[in-house]
């Protein structure tokens, strides 16, 4: 019991030392934005920094995310019909169970993104980078049928990033 108290005290002391040694700007980092369950049809988020923003269960039809920084964003179970994500960075984002019918993902970076059960009907993926993204076999097969181009930021070919045969 005494050992556990000493261990807990040591852990707290280490945590406080780490917090006090962080640069002041790291402590002032704003919390992520939340647009969960929002009606965002036609909104313009182009070129915005939206790291780790929350868009779950949102209606984002015809939203413009051109060249937006969406790294780590959560878009689970949303509707993104005809959304423009040209050049957007969706690395490590959760884009699962999203309806992306007719969306533009050209030149987008989706490295290590979670994309399970997302619908990609009629999506433009020219130059998109899906390196290490989590997709199921049926999605990969569908996307490989129209995969072409090379991502301008990463230099990775879309077919290569999907592992197309």
Task: Describe what is shown at a glance.
With 165 residues, this protein is mainly alpha-helical. The protein is 22% helix and 0% strand.
Core attributes:
single chain, 165 residues, mainly alpha, 22% helix, globular
Describe the structure in your own words.
It contains 4 helices and no strands. It has helices at 2-21, 24-27, 137-144, 158-162. The longest helix is centred in the N-terminal third of the chain and has 20 residues, at 2-21. It is globular and about 40 Å long. Mean pLDDT is 88; it is low at 15-27.
- Strand tally is 0
Overall mean pLDDT? 88
Spans of at least 5 consecutive residues whose pLDDT stays below 50 are 15-27
> β content, as a range?
under 5%
Shape: globular
Main sheet summary: none
* Total DSSP helices: 4
Class from secondary-structure proportions: mainly alpha
How would you spell out the order of helices and strands? HHHH
Rg, rounded, reads 19 Å
Helix content: 10-25%
Q: Alpha-carbon distance between the termini?
A: 59 Å
């Amino acid at each position: 019991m005494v050992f556990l108290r000493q261990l807990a005290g040591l852990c707290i002391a280490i945590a406080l030392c780490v917090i006090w040694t962080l640069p002041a700007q790291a402590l002032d980092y704003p919390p992520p934005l939340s647009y969960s369950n929002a009606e965002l049809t036609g909104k313009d988020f182009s070129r915005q920094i939206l790291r780790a923003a929350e868009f779950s269960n949102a209606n984002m039809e015809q939203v413009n995310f051109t060249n937006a920084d969406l790294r780590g964003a959560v878009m689970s179970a949303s509707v993104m019909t005809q959304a423009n994500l040209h050049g957007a960075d969706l690395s490590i984002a959760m884009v699962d169970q999203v309806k992306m019918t007719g969306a533009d993902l050209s030149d987008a970076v989706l490295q290590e993104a979670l994309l399970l059960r997302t619908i990609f009907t009629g999506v433009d993926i020219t130059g998109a980078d899906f390196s290490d993204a989590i997709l199921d076999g049926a999605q990969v097969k569908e996307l490989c049928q129209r995969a072409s181009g090379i991502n301008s930021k990463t230099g990775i070919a879309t077919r290569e990033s999907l592992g197309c045969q």
